[in-house]
């Protein structure tokens, strides 16, 4: 897959059920399934990448890093947990971009702490997947051979980006993933402020049906067919209307 240009394919959004189906295939080694999930989430990658537009980096470069994040999201997504894929993916994409910015020199962390944090985070994910619960700091210390103090210091120094499997309260009997916290808050809210005022103003100019189509399509993640059934028109009509509305929005923005 080569996305050298930010020219996104006009693809239907996958339902959560479809997404999970293709992720399962991708995790079994089906490269075409992996590519399908990635391509259907490129809008999300671009949206997250745009959040870092003031970082001094070219948007296209950030987008490329974001694509790596979505690939890692597909590979690491736990289908058994009740987490929406887009929530997990947003966290992964943001983490990958922040990791890129950090490693490129914007955030300095000593090499020794980087090494400890890398080993610990890898072990965290392994144990989390294996036991279906977050490991405690003591368990990580036992598994990696590092002291509790070294682990805490490394994770603290390297907390941008924080591991989505990081234990929020490691000394509690009921460990809680950072991922669970993100899910409860909905990581998509990270994106709510993107050109919010401008977008709200433009949306207000649309007629009622157009606003509903945009809301259902891009805020409720519904397919064109689902929207067609809800508003009482054909899927082809929804497709035409969506393209027309998007063209109007682009011109206004």
From TrEMBL:
Highest taxon of source: Bacteria
Family: Belongs to the sigma-70 factor family.
Organism the protein comes from: Iocasia fonsfrigidae
GO molecular function: DNA binding; sigma factor activity
Pfam families: Sigma70_r2, Sigma70_r3, Sigma70_r4
NCBIfam families: SigBFG, sigma70-ECF
Keyword Transcription found: yes
Record carries keyword Transcription: yes
Limits of the HTH cro/C1-type domain: 223-243
PANTHER family in the cross-refs: RNA POLYMERASE SIGMA FACTOR RPO, RNA POLYMERASE SIGMA-G FACTOR
Any one Gene Ontology BP term: DNA-templated transcription initiation
Keywords: DNA-binding, Sigma factor, Sporulation, Transcription, Transcription regulation
Annotated protein name in UniProt: SigB/SigF/SigG family RNA polymerase sigma factor
PROSITE patterns found in the cross-reference section: HTH_CROC1, SIGMA70_2
């Amino acid at each position: 897959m080569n996305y050298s240009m930010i020219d996104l394919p006009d693809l239907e959004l996958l339902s959560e059920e479809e997404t999970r189906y293709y992720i399962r295939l991708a995790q079994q080694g089906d490269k075409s399934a992996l590519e399908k999930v990635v391509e259907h989430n490129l809008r999300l990658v671009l949206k997250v990448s745009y959040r870092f537009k003031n970082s001094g980096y070219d948007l296209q470069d950030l987008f490329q890093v974001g694509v790596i994040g979505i690939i890692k999201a597909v590979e690491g997504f736990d289908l058994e947990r009740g987490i929406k894929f887009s929530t997990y993916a947003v966290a992964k994409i943001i983490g990958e971009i922040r990791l890129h910015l950090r490693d490129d020199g914007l955030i300095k962390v000593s090499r020794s702490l980087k090494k400890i944090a890398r080993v610990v985070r890898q072990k965290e994910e392994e144990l989390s997947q294996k036991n279906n619960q977050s490991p405690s700091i003591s368990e990580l210390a036992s598994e990696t051979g590092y002291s509790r103090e070294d682990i805490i210091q490394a994770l603290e120094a390297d907390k941008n980006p924080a591991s989505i499997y990081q234990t929020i309260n490691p000394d509690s009997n009921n460990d809680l993933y950072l991922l669970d916290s993100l899910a409860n808050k909905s990581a998509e809210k990270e994106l709510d402020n993107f050109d919010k005022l401008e977008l709200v103003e433009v949306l207000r100019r649309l007629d009622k049906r157009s606003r509903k189509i945009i809301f259902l399509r891009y805020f409720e993640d519904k397919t064109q067919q689902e929207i067609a059934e809800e508003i009482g028109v054909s899927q082809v009509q929804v497709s035409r209307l969506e393209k027309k509305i998007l063209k109007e929005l682009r011109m206004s923005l």
